[in-house]
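Lab notebook, bench 4. We co-purified these components, and the gel suggests they stay together. Before we commit to crystallization screens, I want a quick structural picture of the whole thing.
Request: model the full complex, all chains together.
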Amino acid sequence: MPRFVSRTPAITDVAKLAGVSVPTVSRVLTGSVPVSTERRERVLRAIQELGYRPNGAARALIKGHQSVIAVLAGATTRYGYALTIQGIEEAARLAGYIVMITVIEAEDPDTVTKTIDLALANPVAGVIVLKFDPAGIATVRAMPSGVPVVAVAGSRGSGVPHVVLDDTTAAMTATDYLLQLGHRTVHHIAVPLAGRRSGRSAGWRKALERAGAEIPPLMEAGWDPHRAYEIGLTLADRDDVTAVLCGNDELAIGLLRALHEKGRRVPDEISVVGFDGHPLGALWSPALTTVQQDFVDVGRRAFREVVAMIGNEQPPQNSSGTPHLVIRESSGPPPEAKRR
Amino acid sequence: MPRFVSRTPAITDVAKLAGVSVPTVSRVLTGSVPVSTERRERVLRAIQELGYRPNGAARALIKGHQSVIAVLAGATTRYGYALTIQGIEEAARLAGYIVMITVIEAEDPDTVTKTIDLALANPVAGVIVLKFDPAGIATVRAMPSGVPVVAVAGSRGSGVPHVVLDDTTAAMTATDYLLQLGHRTVHHIAVPLAGRRSGRSAGWRKALERAGAEIPPLMEAGWDPHRAYEIGLTLADRDDVTAVLCGNDELAIGLLRALHEKGRRVPDEISVVGFDGHPLGALWSPALTTVQQDFVDVGRRAFREVVAMIGNEQPPQNSSGTPHLVIRESSGPPPEAKRR
DNA sequence: CACACGGATGATAACGTTTTCATGGGAGGC
DNA sequence: GCCTCCCATGAAAACGTTATCATCCGTGTG
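Here is the predicted assembly.
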């Protein structure tokens, strides 16, 4: 088992052991300027022997430019969050950047500023904030100026550049689809709000308004599928509920479980539509109709955008993601339409 | 929209604007030594005005110790991986560390060394490798010495300190449980191997051997639930298959879907047991019996271990996680046992 | 009144690397 | 054989911050 001695070897140690000057070692490392074969050999051997590894901090200091992107997010394990981070990491790695992840545990100003300070205490080239929830919104608001920041969100916003998945349109598409199947109205189990006038719940409401349909009270389930399950148990007893749009697929699955337990048939009696395109949704019985979002792509776009900001370049044309409705087994016409 | 000027303000600019010396600005920033109220005011105003932000690279350079933990993983979005990373991040943030994530895309030596170099080009205090798959194994093997490294794995290993979830015991527990229910043998759909003599598949085999049960050929499904679904379609036609242990819950769900489509009743005709304790498994119909693993905790333990290595301290007592079997609806006695 | 003491402050060194600049030597052209 | 040019090499500067040390001033004590 290796011991980690108090002082890690520095470039001077390598130079001394190899019998060359410090810049020569540096030249061997960077390969910027040719070094005679014999000296290079000696240097490489010394590096090997000492287990030398260049100090990144010193390098970053002199180079001036950083190559770390900080990602601030309210969570990392939820499907959409994890996939967005995957997209960022992938694009970053291919471009030679490294991704730092920091979770914003709460939305109170104290936690938010403390977390931002922790993240920005490190040499960071740019920041990407996942603005999918209240904590994300508070973070974007509290970000100090002077650092390139990009927000990833379900809808456009102001202050910093936004890279978006059009949640509002997506929710409208799903709601319209259910209305066109003949449902009088669509109920909605919501994830935490990420904006009052935009986002999934807003799209749902807008579509109902436009169609002149009744707008049932919004049911908030947070992020917990079990909460959606509980809501589902009460919903199952109601005849007037024929279609439910869920804020994400996890909630939809909780709801499906409750309806199944209560013996309600999906989609014959109740239609359920989820949100996100969670891969397990396709394996459910009935397979979940959902609005698929390309989270990985939005992550990539966010990275490209923040890199453009770092370089003071023109940002790439920022198309918003085009969500598409994946119709599977959990949705269909309402019972009264069938009876006719 | 803010512009990012070519030269970001440095501490000298702040000192000049505030009319104080550079160390005084530093003292205001760190709070290490008291500064007169009047000067502090001037400094803070100058910082505000210039939008000054200390250069982390310079700080890291002089402090000598880094506060970044690099996490190398074969994936980030899969349930176990994501939760382990969550545990690491949480523990790290509370201790004032920051987590860098880098994905090892493939297991070939070229990709592995290139990715390691990318990650270690940054100032890193320690490294945690998620050794859940072949890529992780290759990474641990290729890690240069001199850097504190901890592996998170399903079983103990050599070379670097390991923090483990005891997958082998866990798989044996699950297999024993099924055998005790009366199943003649247990089939197994496996995730990619993380060691030939240990891990989930090894535990399954060991339990069968010990019980003197027939050892059916192992079915490899990779990480893809759809592959498990396809395997399930063929399995559904066989009478001799009464119990299946799956390498993770996603595979189990794919299998359940296939059995459902084929009209096979679970658990009456076939028992299915998953692995991990995925929260959606509890919402399945039938709810999935699974081996719950505390991934978040193993992440926390890995962080504590790597911090101990950094400080050359005695590592905390490294208990392995105690997985426990969560019996739900998808498992029960085989059909012949019922008939009697 | 002399002296010691302590707190705030500034000058300077230090961290480990890369870059810039100067130097020396060898090869090639006349 | 001499001059020029180029290439490899080393010395020194630079990056932005914190740590160390010395200095100065004011205050309290004998």
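Residues 79-94 of chain B form the longest helix (16 residues). Worth comparing against the SEC data before the next meeting. Chain B touches chain A through 67 residues (CB under 8 Å).
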